[in-house]
Specification:
alpha+beta; Alpha-Beta Plaits; 3 domains; eight-stranded antiparallel sheet; 12 helices; 30% helix; globular; ACT domain-containing protein ACR; repeat
């Protein structure tokens, strides 16, 4: 599966790109509850994913989106807020958005040059990440950045390491082989699992996109869902609009940060092109509608493919849904820190459902862990406090899950999936997009 963000361009293609640079407008006046970000540019493959990535890498909440890319031109509008539900007022953030969306290269969310990337996929179990970090500490690897996702009993993890003695990528092929062999044995556990895999290679551009690709390749969407308390499965329907040769995807689910990115990323990696789309989030719910075709211009051509696409989109939405208590660890970095912390989790019966590890240039470790008990149910508060005492009350903090702040739009009709709602929307989407782009005065 192709996942490299950069491709070689000949001089003619570069000239065409320079002549069709995106035009970016950021408006804080028109809408009372959100900042409006407008992007117009020549249409090219993956431009929608690139635009959404710029916004989600800043942890912005996308309340609404209107997207149209028929023909050779791409137009979209995003209504965004910060995580507190406020308009964007920081000029440095606004300038970054303007500059990033105004370029054509896929913006790197973080510079991973000088590091070695390790991929792990396999069966999830309590203490798995603790064993991984213990092996890396034993083999004198310094963990600089890492992310772990779990879904349907599977794990995908991407870990960026450097040689602790040299502070550079691990280039010794024998050492890389030892790392891969030991990690592979941990991921497999006591039972030989065909899909368990480890791999070392040069870093990728975008860590979240790679995690989606790893889980998609691992076919986590096919496995028996793990029952979770107080969670609702996303509703995904797909129908063909034969008259216009579109497949229409409708999604209704709980809103959260990076939701639009996860859906667009998966559609892109499944080789679907988005021609029109809308997103509307109200309260804690989100509704999305996508008009898609294959890259060759044809709609989805079979019920089995529709079922496959539906499963993949549901999995993409569920992967990042955070289960458990959010713990934040902020302390000075040291060799073996992650091995010690995650071992404490394991010894107290806490299971990691998601993790984000980061080390700053100032050598401070900023880490987020989502933990449950061994059965996947909420962890006992007394166990959490015991773990905090062992690690350090001032270092390990209990944080609430970040909430999505949306103002209720009372003018919006109640969302329905399929049926009359879908039929009514088919004829109005393009006009509605043009109206919201400010190109026509009315779409009624």
């Amino acid at each position: 599966m192709e996942w490299h963000a950069f491709v070689d361009l000949d001089e003619y293609e570069k000239l065409v790109i320079r002549m069709n640079r995106p035009r970016v407008v950021i408006d804080n006046v028109v809408c009372g509850s959100a900042t409006i970000v407008k992007v117009d540019s020549g249409s090219k493959h993956r431009i929608l994913l690139e635009a959404v990535q710029v916004l989600t890498d800043l942890n912005l909440s996308i309340k609404k989106a209107y997207i149209s890319s028929d023909g050779r031109w791409f137009m979209d509008v995003f209504h965004v807020t910060d995580q507190n539900g406020n308009k964007l007022t920081d000029e440095s953030v606004i300038n970054y958005i303007e500059q990033s969306l105004g370029t054509v290269q896929f913006v790197r969310s973080k510079d991973f040059d000088g590091l070695t990337a390790l991929e792990l996929t396999g069966t999830d179990r309590v203490g798995l990440l603790s064993e991984v970090f213990a092996v890396l500490a034993d083999l004198e690897c310094n963990v600089v950045e890492a992310k772990l996702w779990t879904h349907n009993g599977r794990i995908a993890s991407l870990i960026y390491v450097s040689d602790i003695n040299l502070g550079s990528p691990i280039e010794d092929s024998q050492k890389i082989n030892r790392i891969e062999a030991r990690l592979r044995q941990i991921v497999k556990g006591d039972i030989e699992i065909r899909t368990a895999r480890t791999l070392a290679y040069a870093p990728v551009t975008h860590i979240d996109r790679r995690l989606h690709q790893m889980m998609l390749a691992d076919r986590d969407y096919e496995r028996k869902p793990v029952l979770k308390q107080n969670t609702e499965s996303p509703i995904v329907t797909i129908q063909n609009w034969a008259e216009r040769s579109y497949s229409v995807v409708n999604i209704y689910c709980t809103d959260r940060t990076k939701l639009l990115f996860d859906v667009v990323c998966t559609l892109t990696d499944m080789d679907y092109a988005v021609f029109h789309a809308t997103m509307n989030a109200s309260g804690d719910r989100a509704y999305m509608e996508f008009y898609i075709r294959h890259s060759d211009g044809t709609p989805i051509n079979s019920q089995s493919e529709m079922g496959h696409a539906r499963q993949c989109l549901q999995a993409a939405i569920e992967r990042r849904a955070s289960e458990g208590v959010r713990l934040e660890l902020c302390t000075d970095d040291r060799h073996g820190l992650l091995a010690d912390v995650t071992r404490t989790f394991r010894e107290n019966g806490l299971n990691l459902t998601r993790a984000e590890i980061s080390t700053t240039a100032e050598n401070a470790s900023l880490n987020i862990f989502y933990v449950t008990d061994a059965l996947g149910t909420p962890a006992d508060a007394r166990i959490i406090e015991l773990v905090r005492e062992r690690i350090g009350l001032e270092n390990l903090l209990v944080k609430e899950l970040p909430k999505i702040h949306h103002l209720e739009d009372r003018d919006q009709p109640q969302v329905a999936i399929g049926g009359p709602f879908l039929l009514a929307s088919l004829g109005n989407l393009v006009k509605k997009n043009l109206y919201n782009l400010g190109l026509i005065k009315s779409y009624s």
